[in-house]
């Protein structure tokens, strides 16, 4: 690896701020489709770079990759699901942002004036989002079941022998991390495919960045408060 996880993540998070600014700029220059697509592609590549880096860590230290020590305690303890945000979070963000924008422009929609943004999703799009949520929850349940089985098997080994064989367990943890990260990216990509209008895709990615940045900042403030109190 070119850098240690802490350094990588600090740089990754700093660039996320930059990408958010670029997304906001793109939202108000919707006539430039090439610029919009470039920013969307860069955002996706940015998240892929994080999961690729974590995969490299996982090859030699699955536990470190799973516990994400570079994240704040709030992120790890309150938000994370299998070492990262729950894939269905993307769908929740989509619904939340859509509802907020729908309410704000309800009178315009009643008059037949559509905005084309997330507050103006078609019935077909809403059905596709519902289906995406169903598939995502099913996939999450499968991964949770696999993790539960691993816990039970390790507990059984320790109870019977007083020790644990960790080789196979580490391999399975690596597999669970990879599958969870793949599901996160797959869900994000699938959501963007449903949002065929550029402004809709931009709005979802801004909401995704805001969620990531907001939780991170809450975690940093919490840790600073604890440090000052000690």
Automatic annotation (TrEMBL):
One of its GO terms (biological process) is DNA-templated transcription. GO terms for molecular function: sequence-specific DNA binding. It comes from the Eukaryota. Pfam families: DOG1. Residues 2-225 form the DOG1 domain. PROSITE patterns: DOG1. This is DOG1 domain-containing protein.
């Amino acid at each position: 690896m070119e850098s240690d996880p802490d350094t990588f993540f600090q740089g990754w998070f700093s660039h996320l701020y930059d990408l958010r600014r670029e997304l906001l700029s793109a939202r108000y220059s919707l006539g430039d489709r090439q610029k919009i697509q470039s920013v969307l592609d860069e955002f996706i590549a940015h998240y892929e770079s994080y999961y690729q880096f974590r995969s490299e860590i996982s090859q030699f230290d699955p536990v470190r990759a799973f516990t994400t020590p570079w994240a704040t305690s709030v992120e790890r303890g309150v938000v994370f699901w299998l070492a990262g945000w729950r894939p269905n979070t993307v769908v929740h963000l989509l619904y939340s942002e859509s509802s907020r924008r729908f309410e704000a422009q309800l009178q315009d929609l009643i008059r037949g004036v559509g905005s084309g943004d997330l507050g103006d999703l078609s019935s077909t799009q809403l059905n596709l989002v519902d289906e995406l949520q169903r598939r995502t929850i099913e996939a999450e349940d499968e991964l949770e079941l696999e993790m539960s089985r691993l816990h039970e098997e390790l507990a059984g080994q320790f109870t019977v022998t007083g020790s644990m064989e960790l080789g196979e367990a580490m391999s399975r943890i690596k597999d669970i991390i990879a599958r969870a990260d793949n599901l996160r990216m797959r869900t994000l990509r699938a959501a963007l495919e449903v949002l065929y209008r550029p402004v809709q895709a931009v709005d979802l990615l801004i909401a995704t960045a805001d969620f990531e940045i907001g939780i991170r900042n809450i975690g940093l403030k919490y840790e600073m408060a604890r440090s000052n109190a000690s």
